[in-house]
């Protein structure tokens, strides 16, 4: 027995040594790949600043550096050769990619590979027939009056029974709370109820830690880190060896998969017991019989895609909105005046709040939840501004930078001014071209949940500004710093002090 134990110990040490050697080989290969890729472009100041990280000396966030470069470019387009990427903030280029040349600018296999473990074959990660099929299904369901009515009732109920009591408790206790965390919990509960008919209870008074929410945060953060790798070979080798961030990502996705399976199983049970339901998962289940392949895998990818779209984008938009309102109390006062004292606030009443609608859009202009989006060029093309794009090249359009372009929004483009969205003596909301404001994408891939998202943000913001004053404290009160992720989130959260209004 002793000899067997020694053999096992020796085997474990050998395995550990092999694992260490392989890990060092991966690191060495990554360094070599970085040097090989960087060397031809080392004289390019943009590539050199990106590779060395020198941009961080002047800019808190990478997206601010990109915005600066794009403002300085005569065409509002730059090439980051070391990434093999063209970055643009030119509305004509955006329209060409998302409308005119739509078929030539798909998501592409490189993007699908980066997010494949998390999003699978979900609508945000596929092209061609798979995308078209899901798009038609989602368009039919989200366009349903029954679904929209059902969704608004859930949002109103969550605001009244969960969000407001949490904020009241913070106000009465004189507590500083992380408003970003509160909005994440609120959005997670809401999207689970709307989309899956299930209640995770993340925003209950005890503020329980949700394994699903934590795993989802980890998975989205680490999936985004893949996109920053100098070479995709690096993360692919780490995934093959199951080391580092890839090992952590695999664990997080395993949790996400398990929770998605539970949601699907519970929805099937409840659906059989209660008959027809309005939640989106039930409706997708009813139409999933036509799906070729694994129905459970298809539904799993639908669940994860809706979680990403419905939780992270809403919480991101609400977080930056109250960061702005803390700095602009006059805007909050104008929102209160417009909303009046009507209780409860109905869906029709919200639709008539043009100033509040403008506030939401102004916030999203400056802080879009998705700061940039990438496509891959299928066949060589020339963008409207004259930029040549080679076969297989990555082309990124940058909503964050576009919101800060004087050529689009004027000299005061960096100012938070909701009035820029209003026109006429009555102050009616006047939308702009989505190719100038691609916060919800545009063209054939325009966000189907745009109306639901804006309505949810309006419902929350009106309820909160009427009842509370929110003061941001800490570093993000001055210069927000973003954390890595598929959607914009503030590093360190948004600590606030909440006080009741008289």
From TrEMBL:
<dbReference type="GO" id="GO:0004497">
    <property type="term" value="F:monooxygenase activity"/>
</dbReference>
<dbReference type="GO" id="GO:0005506">
    <property type="term" value="F:iron ion binding"/>
</dbReference>
<keyword id="KW-1133">Transmembrane helix</keyword>
<dbReference type="GO" id="GO:0016705">
    <property type="term" value="F:oxidoreductase activity, acting on paired donors, with incorporation or reduction of molecular oxygen"/>
</dbReference>
<keyword id="KW-0472">Membrane</keyword>
<dbReference type="Pfam" id="PF00067">
    <property type="entry name" value="p450"/>
</dbReference>
<protein>
    <recommendedName>
        <fullName>Cytochrome P450</fullName>
    </recommendedName>
</protein>
<keyword id="KW-0560">Oxidoreductase</keyword>
<dbReference type="InterPro" id="IPR036396">
    <property type="entry name" value="Cyt_P450_sf"/>
</dbReference>
<feature type="binding site" description="axial binding residue">
    <location>
        <position position="447"/>
    </location>
    <ligand>
        <name>heme</name>
    </ligand>
</feature>
<keyword id="KW-0479">Metal-binding</keyword>
<dbReference type="InterPro" id="IPR001128">
    <property type="entry name" value="Cyt_P450"/>
</dbReference>
<keyword id="KW-0812">Transmembrane</keyword>
<comment type="similarity">
    <text>Belongs to the cytochrome P450 family.</text>
</comment>
<dbReference type="InterPro" id="IPR002401">
    <property type="entry name" value="Cyt_P450_E_grp-I"/>
</dbReference>
<dbReference type="GO" id="GO:0020037">
    <property type="term" value="F:heme binding"/>
</dbReference>
<keyword id="KW-0349">Heme</keyword>
<keyword id="KW-0408">Iron</keyword>
